[in-house]
């Protein structure tokens, strides 16, 4: 048996020469077009009266940056296919994503935001011409946004057998009933469609009882109950919505790939999606370490700079060590996807997903501690970073499930 | 030298017989008068239009519960003096505070909320008759609330030498200039006065350069810049306010105890205040463990209840072990304050403060992980508990400073 | 249901007035009679030629200290019964045991060494007059030593169902076959008898299939295969022996209490035995912290004393905090045994056993790190302490089993 | 400034094509020539009467394996220079060293044991023709062994200023006085020479006060006081010796490179030496994980295999994750040495050294815990592995010093 941990093909972690100009262009775009608008974008947001719409001027700022990116060819490069995007390898994308993770707006300006990236990838690979025309084209153009409705409130969603939202065929229509929550972005006025995971059968193999269906968000019966909070924040206007499906009817042809193929589609999106999250998380860890060093070097207590007091310098060292370890792991997982394909690289993906959000939370937490109260205030991005990354420890499969995948694989090696 | 770790006088950790009826009455009050209104109180709050006032009905609910507590004699018992309160020992209060920590409203219904408790205690001990008449009486009656303005944004406030807000005498008035932040409760419409830590001299011993001054919140020049966030939440309407003092003038007699005695007053309040926080934190850890067990027992994945999967049961055990260890430590620190006085018990207080918020954060975090996304939603109190307790790791002296106190004391033992 | 964590009867952790003179006498005995001979005792041992006997002079030193202890009435006080010992409560014994743990010889000079204490306690409670005469009397007199043969090499001994050594009745004799290992003290030339756990039946309730039988160590068929190492050390001449029972025949009346009552006897000894270990472990943690502070204060690097570099002072603080927490937990577990009895206090015992060796290992390990290479040399007791306490993490039930007991109990509370 | 963490030149971690046949040959050699003799070698050792010599047959076994390696060209390949060895890059050597770390004898059979490798490297680079003839040639031939005398018992040796052993010129001779300890291998009857770090001046820059001198071990005045223990073991017959230098006289020309250049030489050896240790440590971590999985899969308790109980499977996953992270870090540090040179790669070396022994200790410790008492016995290599790796946490600079290097470098980046 080939051992995925000793394959020589996975040891070259270099960015391709072809990707380097893109990598440099993205960094330049962030520095020149995104960083300068970030503060104003959020300040505008604070002043709005209707929390569930954007403030005047916000989308204009964003759209201007999007236009610049598009004009520079920095657009949709997440798609690993030559015809619809720039066909980056996962490895090349990893380097870029780590940069994107450092900025709260960069991804969107490049049309590379979750969950749109995953949704576009799925549509690109399995969509019918009609589905592509109606949904993929405006998504690729950055004109609309989308959501992915998977998680349900009443069950341990790490075990897929538990999906309870049901769709049954009634003539030419799927009739959907059930409840989903933490549907990120579904509050955004630009969000037009949800890819929805449903149960379409109780029989046959467990992995063939689910399907994925396109549901326009304005379909009658789609009830947005309200926003779920993330540690007290609702992230309006995009939100993480709690949604009920009350006899929601969509045409039969809105199903993706076919009945009973919901899991198959999940496999398609989850590997890259999880790795994208991890890649961006490395960037967030870098931001936290950077803030920690800056703050610690500029403040004094007891006659020394904070960073030289007690264990602080060792924490800086440990953070740097962990960041370099995480970076190498995520690069290698990306390389594994490139070389082995999503299925065979599955254990490498779980390995990265189980490692990176947990360690990054610790680094951000230490940066917070060094800042004192300012560390949890709106004056630094640390609290927001913490919430993002803490959330990731149970999104897309909790740490525990990924450890189970890695552990079981290890038993199989012996 | 007597060793504070081997004094036999500190080994009896029993609640006094005299306090037991009060302890039982408080538990009954929470169950009968507080628990039933809690959900409605917060639901009312969600619906309000002006975030910086209470919603109609909220204060009425609270006042009714306060009236019941007052009628039952459950009022102001935090004051360790017979004439103005029930004269509880710190040890007896510890048992009660752990119960209070389990409820977000209980403390206030008993007039036992921070920072009012500390402010009342200070006024009771060092206030002039006039100061007591004007501020202590309505505080003891639960008619007004108060704030404590100590932390400053621009300095490492764990080193007291750094206080920069200044007061200078101009005739019969103190003129105050400076900036404070995270002034909890200063947004509450009922908050009428702030005890404000200021620098009144640059000469003499460092510990005699500060003073504490009573500043009515409506004094001209008190500029409430806005709320500081705690992990994205502003906790309106009470808030944690950012305040500027622009030539704020108050009468000379508003000083507490006398010029240069600011630290002396701090010593008075900080020991008990820190222990009160720790006591309540034990209650919060109990809530988290309770939720963890309940959730873990009621959900299934992979054919077993969640609590029996992987490391979960061991986490429950470790949480219980830590809770019992924390409880004993806080009881012993309280006993030390009773037997040795605040000054001599200082190391015991630091020991508890360095231990309890850190470990409790871990327990709450594990409870969150077991809940999945629900754990960070508004559907459980876990996110709010986490923020409270995480905040405590740098409030009233960061963990690191308390470890320094304990460590230096240990060196002194050898 | 009564909650063992909130019983007021367990909150008074004071040593009894009656025990204090004994406590002080033991401390004096260690200082005056044990400390002065310790170095010589071990130096003599190093020079011996036959590793499996004592060096000339070693036992004489020990016997002289034993004689002093006996003359001073400091003898057999572990026995919780008035007629044969001093009837100490577990709580009182806890205070003394923490002192014993600081010295490698103190326990033996007081006839309080494991496993003799447990063996004597069992014989005292369930032995026949004949068994008492033959074995208990010389043990109580400190004339012989004994072993406890429970652990087996081929099975996970934390699950008692796994015991494979068998005894079958053949006329008036038990015939024993099987294999035991890590039988501590069985190499000691003074060791005369082993209490041996055997399987006597495969039927009936699992907890009634085992028995305990007295086996004189010189019985034909008892084959001492050799010493088991503990991290490379064989601890000659006492040793941790690997023993085979090859058709070992002992009289029928050598059974303790009766056939099928092996577990019942285990319950008797394991609670106190585990707590005794934990008590002594607190003393070892104190020794490690003491050495850490002494070394760190007397060495310099980079212009500061070691203890003031980096995280060292915080480690000292954390060690002190953990030691105080462990001390309180073990005192409370001892109190629980006194008040509730062994069976009801079982969860408290597991709680202490799961907590204390693990945390103490960390403290000793940190003390080692601060000493550099000297920390693992024969020039400090740290390496030996580490091995002792590390061993304890799987002796008498591994941490994991004790966490399971605490965790399951917690589920039962809800 | 170039950032050592983002240099594209360091991202290709592939073994060179040229090295792969060597890598495969080494694995084959270990499997065919070393593994089969390992058990017998140690069994022979146990039976010897003089602990400070080898048992009859031991060296013969070893020499036969060495002869096979030599014949196969697997000899001295650690030397990064074409004329005297096979000129492996550090990266290529890293892959091989991880294999060597899995076997206690493999390194020696390939003439790749510490400290001989470092000593040969130093002699090869800075030795005079005469020094090379007398010492390097027999070392390269595997005919003699050597020691490196640096660490001193009375000072914190992580700060080089503290070296106290002195050498003064007296005519044509260096006269050396002082004390060294933990001089590994100096008890080996084959050890003929020590490279000795001494202070030759108290003036001038601190980094030019030391020198390194070749001292034949049979020089009059070299007093081997005795073996230092490593957690109770003396590792006879090689030992870790405590040595006094009493007016030891060696010819003036025994100095290496020149007076005051001791640190310069240290820089030469320490980088690769530390990385070699880390590389081998990865192999040890693999052994521990392998044993953990095998044991856990073959034992049962409570009706399940051990590995499926509680947190065990997650520990397996975490060990695998850490091993892969460590492997990538050590490969990248090796690559950095190849690309940047020892001096510029210094931070990468410290980063690996601070990370790998600490994490590996945890993995071995967990493997021990799963084995129960067998885990610390002579029946598995775990106890020995633990001691080796634990020792490494303060050998060649304690973790704390390496964290200081990484931390200070990080401050410099900002």
From TrEMBL, chains A, B, C, D:
UniProt keyword Oxidoreductase present: yes
Record-level Gene Ontology MF annotations: acyl-CoA dehydrogenase activity; flavin adenine dinucleotide binding
The Acyl-CoA dehydrogenase/oxidase C-terminal domain, residue ranges: 260-409
Signal peptide: none
InterPro entries: Acyl-CoA_dehydrogenase (IPR050741), Acyl-CoA_Oxase/DH_mid-dom (IPR006091), Acyl-CoA_Oxase/DH_mid-dom_sf (IPR046373), AcylCo_DH-like_C (IPR036250), AcylCo_DH/oxidase_C (IPR009075), AcylCoA_DH/ox_N (IPR013786), AcylCoA_DH/ox_N_sf (IPR037069), AcylCoA_DH/oxidase_NM_dom_sf (IPR009100)
Superkingdom in the source lineage: Bacteria
Recorded family membership: Belongs to the acyl-CoA dehydrogenase family.
Occurrences of domain Acyl-CoA oxidase/dehydrogenase middle (ranges): 147-247
A GO cellular component entry from the record: cytoplasm
Cell membrane found in the keyword field: no
One of the GO biological process terms: fatty acid beta-oxidation using acyl-CoA dehydrogenase
Quaternary structure and partners: Homodimer.
Name by which UniProt lists this protein: Acyl-CoA dehydrogenase family protein
Cofactor(s) needed: FAD
A Pfam family recorded for this sequence: Acyl-CoA_dh_M
